[in-house]
Amino acid sequence: MFTRFFNYFKVRDLRTRILITLALLAVYRIGVYITTPGTNRVVMGKILKEQSQGTFFGMFNLFSGGAFKQLSIFALGIMPYISASIILSLLVVVIKPLERLQKEGGEQGRQKINQYTRYGTVLLSIVQGFGISYYLESQKYVGETIEYVVSPNINKWMFRFITIVTLTGGTMFLMWLGEKITEFGVGNGISLIIFAGIVVGLPDAVIQTVYKARQGKEGGLEAFDVIILGIIMLITIAFVVFLETAYRKLKIQNSKQRVGGGGVISESSVLPLKVNMSGVIPPIFASSLLMFPTTIAGFSQNATVQKIVAFFQFGSWGYDVFYILLIIFFTYFYTAIQFNSKDMAENLQKSGGAIPGVRPGEETIAYLDKVVNRLTFAAGIYLSAVSILPGLLIKHYEIPFFFGGTSLLIVVGVALDTLNQMDSYVIGSQYANLSDTTSAPSRIRGRRYQEDV
Predict the structure, then answer these.
(1) Which of 67, 131, 209, 437 has its CA 20 to 30 A from that of 75?
(2) Nearest Cα residue to 204 out of 40, 66, 74, 70
(3) Structural domain harbouring 20
(4) How many CB atoms lie within 10 A of CB 62?
C-alpha cells in the first residue's frame, strides 16, 4: 500500500497534479469558514446540535462539509450543480431535441449541455438561497436568553438579496473550482469536493466515539460495543468496495471477415455490465423526498401533521420501509435511463458481435433486459442495506455520527475512481519510459551503421 502511494509521487506530472488538487481543496476548506453577511454562526451551531440528524438541513450540512452549520458562503455546497445535472440527464431522455443534441452534437453538443447545466445551477441556487434566507430569519435559540441567527432589526429583503447573491456566488465558485481540479488536478473535481466535505468530519467522529467509550455505560458505549462497531464498519466498507467494482461479464462472440476473403474469423470477448449502474443517485433522491416534506411539515403545530412527521421521522420503521421502497424504485428508474438495451443490441449487431445461444435483434434485447433487471434488483437491495445502516447504528449503539448510507457510497466511489486514475498515470509513465529506453539504442545503431558505410 505504501509503495503504491510512493509510486504516485515518483511520477512528476502526477505529483504536480496531486499537489494542485490538494491546494484547490484547501481553498475550498478555507472558504467554509467565511460567514455569510448578517448571520450568527454560533447560534446556528447550537440550533443544529439540538435538531435530529435526519432532518433535511442535517443532510444538507453533511454534504456541504459543515458549511451550512458555519453559515458559510459555501452553505449550498455543490448540490445545486449535482441536482441540475441529474434533472438535465432526465430531461435528455424525455425531450427529443436534447437527446439529439447529446447523441449527434459531438463536442459542441456536450458544451451546450454543460451550458444548460450551469444555467440550471444558477436557477436552483437562487431558489435554494431564498429558501435558506427565509428559514434563517425564523431561527432562534432559547437558552438563558433568546439568541437570533439573523437580527430582527435587519431589513429582511436586503438580507434575502445579499444571502441569495452570496450563496449563488459561492456555489458557482465551487463549480469553477471543481472544473479546475478536473482539468489540472487528478480525479473528478466535483466529486472530490463532496468527498472532502464528508471526510473532514471523520476526525471529530472518532474523537466523539472514543470519548463516549471512555464514559462506559454512562456514555452509551462500552469497549465491547466499540469492537463490534469496528468489525461492522470494516465488513461494510469491504462489502461496498466489492459491489462497487463488481461486473456481470457477458460472453460475446465476434465474427470478422478474414483479410483477403479467406473466410470468417470468430473471436471471443466479454461485455461487462456493472452491478450498480445507478450509482449513488437512488439514496440521494429517496432521502430528499422523505426528509424535505417532513422538515417543512415540522414548522406546523397541527396534531395530525405532527403524527405524520413522527411516522416518517428518521430511524422509525415507517421511514425505513418507505426509504427502501423509494431506493429500489429509483434504482430501476435511473438504470433504465442509463442503460438502453435496444441501442446495445444494435451496436453488437453492427460490430458483428452476438451473445452465444441468443439470436440478434429482439431476442438479444429481451436477454439483456432480463440480465439487467436481475442486476438492478441486487443493486437495489445492496443500496437499501447500506442506506438504512446509519439509522440502525444510531438507534442501537447511540453512535454520535453517520456511518454508511449515501456518504459512505460517495466516499468509496470517489476514492476508487481517483485511485484508478492515478494508477493509469503511473502505468502510462512506465510505458513512456519503456518506449524511450527501447527506441534510443535503435537510433544509435542507425548512426553507427551509417558511419560504417
Answers:
(1) 209
(2) 66
(3) 12-202
(4) 22
